[in-house]
Specification:
Layout: H1 9-19, H2 49-62, H3 69-76, E1 85-86, E2 102-103, H4 104-117, H5 121-133, H6 151-163, H7 178-184, H8 211-221, H9 247-262, E3 268-269, E4 279-280, H10 281-293, H11 297-310, H12 312-318, H13 320-333, H14 345-350, H15 375-386
Antiparallel strand pairs: 1-2, 3-4
Length: about 400
């Protein structure tokens, strides 16, 4: 993860760490005050309250649940009058002022959650108006309004645009769309990590491959949000050269590179300080979703299986955002989140806050026929192969991938 040294850096670290913590080395920090009754999780929500609530509601809706009204109302109540969201507002009755650090990531995530929950069209519309107003001239978005554009922030905003039925290609500033920003962040094929996406250019203007950004960027380039399933044939395993890459080429290049990174171990490795050779569970879950969206089902399944065998302790310690990420990864590859290595991600997530209404789809009660949740998934891969869709295997490698 490329951490920006700015006034917003602490908030960036908090939000992204909540979405994808690198390790399971200890519980989350205790809250400074009482946790609001509608908010999921028990840890300090200062840096991730809106983010974790949004992922929770999205995961519940993906499973067919009707989120609890007070959970949705809590999220909607976090919105500022101008339509934006901050990571957390302890006193939402107090008007937002210049001291409230609003950001694009919380706002775009809240849009996707409120749109999925339904009944908050006004809030969604105001949030989208604000997001469009803070688009940068390069077509992208930074974490904080006015900040330099980055791949992750731009991609989560693309997810919000798509969720509200807006074509990202038609949302432009100074003639450039979000896809132009993603193209500008693509590492050239002849460089280390070619095909991957950078978070931002470094101080020298160089693009350094970043797996976290690549996972986000694959979804962004495909015009997708947090929720996706495998639905396309895998792209080429060869990095496509060109100065004017199409969104599909950006996604395929990044997907191919990302799959090569996890091919050996099945997971990403944390780049956070002090996390020597430790798995990055959250970004691995995001990678599963990205690879599935890009049609690279074989590698997505291998990484999901690794998560199923290794990520439960991380989720238990990290809370609702982690459970939601694993549920979305399961959904992307067609797995049963009600049986994740013998544990129900669904019950675990729903126990973190107000209970949602039961779904009618049977996600929670459906059992595996042979005791191995991967069986049905690999059957699906076989069907794809028989149908001639094919599965891409990656030949490219890279050195140090993440700054």
């Amino acid at each position: 993860m490329n951490v920006r040294r700015s006034a917003a850096a602490l908030a960036v670290v908090g939000v992204l760490a909540a979405a994808a913590p690198a390790t399971a080395a200890g519980p989350s920090p205790s809250p400074k005050g009482a946790i609001p009754s509608g908010l999921y999780g028990t840890s300090d929500p200062t840096y991730d309250g809106v983010w974790r609530q949004s992922l929770t509601l999205i995961a519940q809706r993906t499973l067919g649940y009707e989120p609890a009204a007070k959970a949705v109302d809590w999220l909607a109540g976090q919105q500022c009058a101008n339509g934006s969201f901050a990571a957390f507002r302890a006193d939402p009755a107090k008007a937002c002022d210049s001291k409230v650090m609003v950001d694009t990531n919380s706002t775009a995530a809240a849009v996707q959650a409120l749109k999925a929950a339904g009944g908050h069209d006004d809030a969604v519309g105001k949030a989208m108006t604000w997001l469009k107003s803070v688009q940068n001239k390069d077509g992208g978005w930074g974490y904080a309004p006015g900040g330099a554009s980055d791949t992750n922030s731009t991609s989560v905003v693309i997810g919000a645009l798509t969720a509200t039925g807006t074509d990202p290609a038609k949302v432009a500033k100074a003639g450039k769309s979000p896809y132009d920003l993603l193209a500008a962040m693509a590492v050239p094929c002849d460089r280390t990590g070619g095909g991957a996406l950078a978070f931002q250019p470094d101080k020298k203007g160089e693009l350094l491959a970043n797996a976290d950004a690549s996972a986000a960027g694959v979804l962004g380039a495909l015009g997708k949000g947090f929720v996706t399933t495998a639905g396309k044939a895998p792209g080429s395993t060869t990095c496509v050269l060109g100065k004017h890459l199409t969104p599909a080429q950006i996604a395929d290049n990044a997907g191919a590179n990302l799959a090569s990174v996890v091919a050996k171990t099945g997971h990403l490795t944390s780049t956070l300080p002090g996390a020597m050779d430790q798995p990055d569970y959250g970004n691995t879950a995001d990678t599963v979703v990205a690879l599935a969206a890009d049609g690279r089902v074989t590698q997505a399944l291998q990484s999901y299986t690794w998560l199923e065998n290794n990520a439960l302790k991380w989720a238990e310690q990290s809370g609702p955002a982690a459970y939601a990420q694993l549920i979305l990864a399961a959904h992307a590859v067609g797995a049963q989140p009600g049986d994740f290595g013998g544990t129900s991600l669904v019950r675990s997530l729903n126990a973190q806050g107000p209970a949602p209404s039961m779904p009618s789809t049977g996600h929670e009660t459906k059992k595996k026929s042979d005791g191995n949740s991967s069986f049905g998934l690999w059957w699906f891969v076989g069907v794809c192969l028989v149908a001639g869709i094919g599965i891409g295997f990656l030949l490219s490698g890279r050195k140090k991938q993440q700054p």
